[in-house]
Amino acid sequence: MENGKFRTLQDELNSQDMVDGHVLVLNHFMSSLKSQAIRCACGLGIPAVLHRLGGSATVANLLDETGLHPSKLPYLRRLMRALTVSGIFAATRGNNITETVYSLTPASRLLVGDTTSSSMSVLQSQRPEKGFAMFFRMEEWFRDDGGAGTLFKMEHGVTSPWELAKENSDYNTGLNKSCVIDTSIVMDVLLRGPSADVFRGVTSLVDVGGGYGAASLAIVGAFPGIKCTVMDLQQVIGEAPDDGVVQFVAGDMFEFVPPAQAAFFKNVLDCWSDDDCVKILRQCKKAIAKRDAGGKVIIINVVVGHGPDNVAAKETQVFYDMYMMSIDGIEREEHEWRDIFIEAGFSDYKITPILGYQSIIEVFP
Ligand code: SAH
């Protein structure tokens, strides 16, 4: 109140601030259309068609090749324009002044192929009915007094994906396969670069919560001298394709971690609370060698605040964190990681950012 009258928005914000604020709010509200647009384009096979046509095509070509009804041409043009503005495709003017030629970018190149060979799997595994629908209930969850448990439980009736996977074999297989694709891309980049040095000198490794063993297979491929053991729950190990290159062990990491010189966790510890991580890491410390014998834990996970200083990488980190909130997991900042390492009895650590939003953390006993 000022002079007996309420201050209006116009009193508080100048025109530019009002416009900028309005655009930002609308942008947030509309952003879920980004996910729907990319999923639609992939479902229609557009990245694959572009690839087949040599990397670029007009909308008319895309319509022909995807077999869509001609009445959809103007709508397809708008879908392509939206995904070009957001950076998934690129556009140039064709011969005809009104004609736009769309082409693949590095992002859409990763979407070429089927669900077993590309980032497509990530999109598939995050179909609304499987992954994101529960977030429409986030406000309801915040208002709950804690009795409902996790957001995941509110939606699915069980606390975590692993419990759901135990009772639903299609969900189990889908979850494990989507981990394999993500892991293959991450490990490929990691093992091609200087970060591969974290595995140098390691003679044996236990890949805890290792799923179908994709990371271990990649590590053995690059370092044939390392003996890898993949440990995961029975429901995962029971259906992991075993070609004898790595050893598979079913078990519960809260009870026991098979002995090895080093332990490896990729996208595992962010699924658990601090207390649970301390329990897991204590089991791990019993399993690995002493520091002077090369003992260490290698973690691949987000370290919030580390990595490139661009909006896409930073948002991806905190979006993952929101996702993890649904199962009571967390993407940690450096000091949060440090606290659990110390609590679990480790003495030192080293963080190296890799692959944009993720880091490697080496933790020493
Ligand atoms: N490391 C793999 C899988 C990450 S998903 C990758 O990055 O691709 C987390 C994994 O932890 C799942 O495979 C899940 O089955 C496993 N997991 C969950 N609870 C576990 C437990 N108590 N003991 C061992 N593994 C567990």
What does this structure look like?
The mean pLDDT is 90. Strand 2 and strand 3 (100-104) form a beta hairpin. The chain has helices spanning 9-12, 15-30, 32-43, 46-52, 59-66, 73-85, 106-109, 120-125, 138-143, 151-156, 161-167, 169-192, 214-222, 234-237, 274-287, 311-325, 334-343; strands spanning 56-58, 89-93, 100-104, 204-208, 227-232, 247-250, 262-266, 296-301, 303-304, 332-333, 348-354, 358-364. The chain contains 17 helices and twelve strands. It has 365 residues and is an alpha/beta fold. It has two domains: 32-109, Winged helix-like DNA-binding domain superfamily/Winged helix DNA-binding domain (Arc Repressor Mutant, subunit A, Orthogonal Bundle); 158-364, Rossmann fold (3-Layer(aba) Sandwich). Helix content is 45%, strand content 16%. It binds S-adenosyl-L-homocysteine. S-adenosyl-L-homocysteine (SAH) binds next to helix 12. Keywords: Methyltransferase, S-adenosyl-L-methionine, Transferase.
Strand order of the largest sheet: 6-5-4-7-8-12-11
The CATH architecture name of the largest domain reads 3-Layer(aba) Sandwich
CATH level 4 superfamily of the largest domain: Vaccinia Virus protein VP39
Q: Which stretches are poorly predicted, pLDDT < 50 over at least 5 residues?
A: none
Beta-strand fraction estimate? 15-25%
At the fold tier of CATH, the topology name of the largest domain is Rossmann fold
Largest sheet: 7 strands, mixed
- How many domains, as an integer? 2
**Name of the CATH first level of the largest domain:** Alpha Beta
Number of beta-strand segments: 12
Order of helices and strands: HHHHEHHEEHHHHHHEHEHEEHEEHEHEE
**Broad structural category:** alpha/beta
Q: Could you give the distance between the termini?
A: 60 Å
| Morphology call | globular
Mean pLDDT: 90
Q: What is the number of helical segments per DSSP (H or I, 4+ residues)?
A: 17
Ions and ligands: S-adenosyl-L-homocysteine
